User: What shape does this take?
Amino acid sequence: MTRVSVIGNAGGGKSTLCAAICAAHDLPNISIDHLQWQPGWVPTPKATFNCAHQSALSQDRWLIDGFGPWDSVVERLKASDTIIFVDHPLWLHYWWTTKRQIKSIFVGRPDGPNGCPMLPVTFRLYKMMWHVHRVLRPKLLAELSERAKTCRIIHIRSPRELNTFKRNPI
Assistant: This one.
């Protein structure tokens, strides 16, 4: 486990899972959110994002967390030796996201993009989550099926599976 993609809808516990994996395997943790957003939720120019993404993929060891543009997802999955798909029921992603959004009022979000307050983008986030679930999830499942022959796929479908893997990320 040296080139790991962690992907799934918002609010699924990916960030805490990534921290556990990176600690257990001494991997650098690269967040797509940090690559694709500048302060104030300003999108990073495509060329800048692509350069940063390519730079990450060119490393020998990495864990990359998040979606980003679809073409970057496919490229990342092809380069991975392990893909972890956090795929809870949609209602649970919404519930955990709502709790995180409320919590961000009081303590911010230390793992979020710099200078990007969470609360103002809540409704945009909910719309994006619906799109990820209805449009991108089926495409992602097809990609995972294709990649199953060449890399390890870990499909996490419940909080219990998430916690079990987080405790022992092998």
In short: The chain has one domain: 3-167.
